[in-house]
Amino acid sequence: MNVTPQDWDRRVDALSAKLPDRLRRAVDWLREPSRVWIRLAAAFLFILGGIFSILPVLGLWMLPVGLALLAQDVPGLKVPLEHAARWIERAWARLVQAWRRRSGPSDRS
Fold first, then answer.
1. Does residue 108 come out as left (phi exceeding 0), alpha (psi in the -120 to 50 range) or beta?
2. Which of 31, 49, 62, 101 to pair with 56, CA 20 to 30 A apart?
3. Global pTM?
């Protein structure tokens, strides 16, 4: 299974399409090539916020968002992020499957 930067771009496009209209337009605006400096500043602020996740409001959710924004301008990040996303999907599927096996029909009569 060969992973390419285009796989990450397709994933981001698909996720963006699932967002509410107003948020999707904001993400699309931010992803435009002319917005590189705004995008880089936002990416570094999100990453910094993820590092200080112990503080209120800031959290670990900010780190992957910052990395995803940074990957728009640093193509070398796209393949590792795609690998991480695929690993998370597989791990989530295993957890859901294990949970369903545990909470299946009981043997009590």
1. beta
2. 31
3. 0.79
How far is it, in rounded angstroms, from Cα 46 to Cα 52? Answer: 10
* Alpha-carbon distances of 20 from 13, 25, 30, 47, rounded to whole Å: 13, 9, 15, 24
Q: Give Rg (Cα) of the chain.
A: 18
57: tokens are: 């409001």
CA 59 to chain centre: 14
Q: What angle do CA 46, 50, 56 make, to 5 degrees?
A: 105
| CA gap 49, 63 in Å, rounded | 7
Q: Measured between alpha carbons, how far is 61 from 46 in angstroms, rounded to an integer?
A: 9
